[in-house]
């Protein structure tokens, strides 16, 4: 199945092969002239450098002092934090400059950037277990952000959690006590570093399906009041991204709370409505300096395009996550339906279905602004587009006769074309899943137009795309859809998944042993929320 291959391909990137590290000797560092050019590229042109995760004057002072030593000390006699931070910034700068001088493969092992990163990774244990300062925390979070570029193995979650735990051990998540005797500059530096890690940890946990690393109730660090460099739009972005990350935590805690109880359907609806309002109020309150224009979809001029895209697409992706609880069978929460009015029940489900579909369309419309380079983040290039594609795929199968179907197929074609270009530009990444599900959706719509309306999961799994619409048909139901069995009933999908290889969090939530069909979960198997009879 295409979905199985997609899961395997994505999850294979979660780890390195042992030989990638064991056989790698420390790479020689650039000469001073090249180093200064690379460092300037990092601070002047990369998103990470513009965010001021590392204070430029302080770093350049360290680098100047480093090159003043002749001969340069061997790596094993250096401060591991300075060695790691210096090399990961070399990696960032080299990668950015290489976009203008090289072409073809985006493979992470091509060129010097990966070698510099491995230099930094070589002191990972020293950063965590030896006496270090804030520079070690900066190095770890910078390493995490570096591997977020497309073509790199997806090590960002483990590195980000390492940086967060090291930051916690140094008390960055706490408001500094008076007895610490820190000046305002040090307090601002600690706050900026902590909240940068926090935002990125929430992002990586959200994208990978992993648990959160710290509870918001344990954080007392003050919010940033200014941005290094003095760009007010960048401060607006930073505060906005922190608030979005906090709402993400609320969604995660709400989902966990509901799964551990047996709520009524009204309680689920109220919880979703509360967080939906929080998301809407948050996005409405963002200043125009960081928002994409809703009419023209043009980008704001005062910040890096990727920052505006992260806020907008992150907002849409969280709407999908939140409302999928009522839309996708594998995200269900056990509920007591009771005497809840069926019409109101179906109205809520339909409302969430429309919100999820429109959020997917909004993500796809942003693809015109995504520039595919070595440095492009995975979320913008293929993770969020794949979320949007799968969302519309399910929507089209459920409702193949809606007047919006033709436009939705075009949206799916847009994602397919985008991912085909990613494969062409990178020479390494390939997403046949997109082409296959788009073809399947188009065939499903054609069959529905002929009056053949029902496709079972079994018939969809028996053959390739061209023959996947041979299931039994019925005139009683106009939707072309999968049946209502939860993913735990389809063990075929999970036979090729080894939880020891961290596949459990990919695409679908790993099914619990007590999962039942969606109808049974809602307490009334006669109510089919997947049908369009409530329209």
UniProtKB/TrEMBL annotation:
<dbReference type="GO" id="GO:0003677">
    <property type="term" value="F:DNA binding"/>
</dbReference>
<dbReference type="GO" id="GO:0008270">
    <property type="term" value="F:zinc ion binding"/>
</dbReference>
<dbReference type="GO" id="GO:0006351">
    <property type="term" value="P:DNA-templated transcription"/>
</dbReference>
<keyword id="KW-0539">Nucleus</keyword>
<dbReference type="GO" id="GO:0003700">
    <property type="term" value="F:DNA-binding transcription factor activity"/>
</dbReference>
<protein>
    <recommendedName>
        <fullName>Xylanolytic transcriptional activator regulatory domain-containing protein</fullName>
    </recommendedName>
</protein>
<dbReference type="Pfam" id="PF04082">
    <property type="entry name" value="Fungal_trans"/>
</dbReference>
<dbReference type="InterPro" id="IPR007219">
    <property type="entry name" value="XnlR_reg_dom"/>
</dbReference>
<dbReference type="InterPro" id="IPR050987">
    <property type="entry name" value="AtrR-like"/>
</dbReference>
<feature type="domain" description="Xylanolytic transcriptional activator regulatory">
    <location>
        <begin position="156"/>
        <end position="230"/>
    </location>
</feature>
């Amino acid at each position: 199945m295409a979905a199985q291959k997609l899961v395997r391909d994505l999850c294979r990137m979660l780890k390195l092969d042992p030989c990638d590290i064991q056989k790698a000797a420390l790479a020689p560092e650039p000469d001073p002239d090249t180093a200064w050019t690379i460092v300037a590229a990092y601070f002047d042109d990369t998103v990470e450098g513009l965010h001021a995760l590392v204070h430029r004057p302080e770093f350049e002072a360290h680098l100047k002092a480093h090159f003043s030593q002749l001969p340069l000390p061997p790596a094993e006699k250096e401060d591991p934090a300075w060695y790691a931070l210096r090399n990961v910034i070399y990696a960032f700068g080299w990668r950015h400059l290489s976009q203008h001088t090289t072409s073809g493969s985006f493979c992470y092992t091509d060129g010097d950037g990966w070698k510099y990163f491995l230099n930094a990774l070589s002191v990972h244990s020293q950063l965590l277990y030896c006496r270090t300062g804030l520079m070690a925390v900066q190095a770890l979070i910078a390493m995490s952000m570096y591997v977020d570029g497309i073509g790199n193995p997806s090590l960002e979650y483990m590195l980000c959690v390492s940086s967060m735990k090291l930051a916690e051990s140094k008390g960055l998540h706490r408001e500094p006590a008076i007895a610490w005797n820190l000046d305002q500059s040090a307090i601002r530096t600690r706050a900026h570093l902590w909240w940068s890690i926090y935002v990125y940890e929430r992002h990586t946990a959200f994208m990978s399906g992993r648990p959160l690393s710290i509870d918001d109730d344990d954080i007392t660090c003050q919010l940033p009041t200014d941005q290094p460099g003095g760009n007010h739009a960048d401060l607006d972005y930073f505060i906005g991204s922190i608030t979005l990350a906090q709402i993400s935590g609320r969604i995660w805690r709400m989902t966990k709370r509901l799964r551990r109880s047996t709520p009524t359907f009204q309680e689920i609806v109220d919880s979703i409505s509360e967080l939906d309002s929080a998301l809407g109020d948050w996005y409405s309150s963002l200043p125009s300096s960081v928002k994409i224009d809703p009419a023209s979809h043009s980008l704001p001029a005062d910040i890096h395009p990727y920052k505006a895209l992260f806020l907008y697409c992150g907002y849409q992706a969280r709407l999908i996550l939140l409302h999928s609880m009522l839309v996708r069978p594998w995200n269900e929460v056990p509920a007591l339906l009771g005497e809840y009015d069926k019409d109101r029940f179906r109205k809520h489900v339909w409302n969430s279905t429309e919100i999820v579909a429109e959020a997917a369309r909004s993500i796809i419309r942003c693809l015109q602004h995504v520039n595919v380079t070595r440095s492009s983040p995975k979320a913008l290039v293929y993770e969020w587009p794949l979320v949007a594609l799968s969302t519309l795929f399910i929507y089209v199968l459920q409702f193949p006769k809606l007047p919006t179907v033709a436009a939705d197929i075009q949206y799916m074609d847009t994602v397919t074309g985008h991912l085909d270009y990613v494969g062409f530009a990178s020479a390494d990444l390939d997403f046949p899943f997109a082409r296959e599900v788009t073809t399947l959706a188009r065939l499903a719509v054609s069959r529905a137009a002929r009056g053949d309306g029902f496709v079972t999961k079994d018939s969809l799994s028996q053959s390739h795309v061209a023959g996947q619409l041979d299931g039994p048909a019925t005139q009683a139901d106009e939707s072309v859809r999968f049946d209502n069995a939860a993913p735990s009933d389809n063990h075929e999908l999970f036979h090729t998944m080894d939880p020891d290889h961290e596949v459990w969090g990919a695409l679908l939530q790993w099914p619990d042993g007590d999962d039942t069909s969606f109808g049974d979960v809602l307490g009334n198997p006669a109510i089919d929320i997947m049908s369009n009879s409530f329209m």
